[in-house]
Amino acid sequence: MSARRRFDVSYSLAFAPERVWSFVSWTGVERLAGCGAFTAVTLESRAAEPGAVRYTHLADGSRITERLQCYEPDRLRYEYTIDDDDALPVQGYRGLVEVSSAPGGARLRFAHDAQVKGMTPEQWRAAWLEIESTVVRFIESRLAAGE
Question: Would you say residue 91 lies in a domain?
């Protein structure tokens, strides 16, 4: 297993930050079901507070358990962990989702640190970026359609 690594990517979207947040907030990710990367997202509770749990069902049929660590809706930001060390080729996943204002719209940032297992960090980064870019294309298409 490799040493703990940090992965970080930001996307510029031509939509208001609050509209983008409506898709990526802790509960808003339910709107991403069917985006190609996820087939379903279920929440144990609608309360977005530390310790809250959601289950993300991936396109390959696996399910990951995510646990909210810090939620700052006024800053359009939250941190979470993935409890399942066998669901992905990473261990000790600690993630961040953040939306901020940017010229012409919003900046959407996804970041995490973890130990990569079963593949190189470069292979994981490529796979992770494919998931995140699929999510962003889905959000852009839905917002462009008026959602």
Answer: yes
Q: Is residue 13 part of a domain?
A: yes
> Structural domain tally of the chain?
1
Burial-class residue 94 by CB neighbours within 10 Å (0-12, 13-18, 19+).
Answer: middle
Residue 125 lies in a domain: yes
| Residue of 84, 94, 95, 88 whose CA lies nearest to 119 | 88
* CB burial of residue 96 (10 Å; 0-12, 13-18, 19+): middle
Look at residue 62 and tell me if it is in a domain: no
Q: Are 20 and 29 in contact (CB under 8 A)?
A: no
pLDDT tens-digit readout, 3-36:
889 999 999 999 999 999 999 999 999 999 989 8
